[in-house]
Amino acid sequence: MIKNSVKKFGQINSIEGYSYLILLFIAMPMKYYFGYPIAVKIAGMLHGILFILFCLLLLLAYKDTKWSFNENIIFFIASLIPFGTFFTKNRIKAYE
Predict the structure, then answer these.
(1) 35 SS3 class
(2) In 10 A of CB 23, how many CB atoms?
(3) Rounded to whole angstroms, how far apart are CA atoms 83 and 14?
(4) Please, are residues 16 and 74 in contact by the beta-carbon 8 Å criterion?
(5) Please, are residues 58 and 72 in contact by the beta-carbon 8 Å criterion?
(6) Is 6:92 a contact under the CB 8 Å cutoff?
(7) What phi and psi, each to the nearest 5 degrees, are found at residue 66?
(8) How far apart are CA 14 and CA 34, in angstroms?
């Protein structure tokens, strides 16, 4: 059970990180430089859904593994920083 929730969290950690980068470095330039606001609407909606799923799976993994509260805060703050989720990937793999 613990492995399963951590594995799912590790997967969504990477996917959410990629969606954030797509939003920042592809969709936003398309909106502001090329005049395609639909790119941000689509990428933003997808990223929002993935971020909510990330938060839910973070809570489930926290409950199952008994991570410290500080560890949870590190995972959450890393998700707010571009490329941050990729730095926490090794930490998550240690729990798998």
Answers:
(1) coil
(2) 20
(3) 10
(4) no
(5) yes
(6) yes
(7) 60, 40
(8) 28
What is the residue-level pLDDT of the chain in tens, covering all 96 positions?
A: 567 888 999 999 999 999 999 999 999 999 999 999 999 999 999 999 999 999 999 999 998 888 889 989 999 999 999 999 999 988 888 877
Q: Which pair of tokens denotes residue 8? A: 């799912």
**Cβ 9 vs Cβ 61: under 8 Å:** yes
Pull the structure tokens for residue 73: 């805060």
CA dihedral 72, 10, 46, 68 (to 10 degrees): -10
In eight-state DSSP terms, residue 36 is -
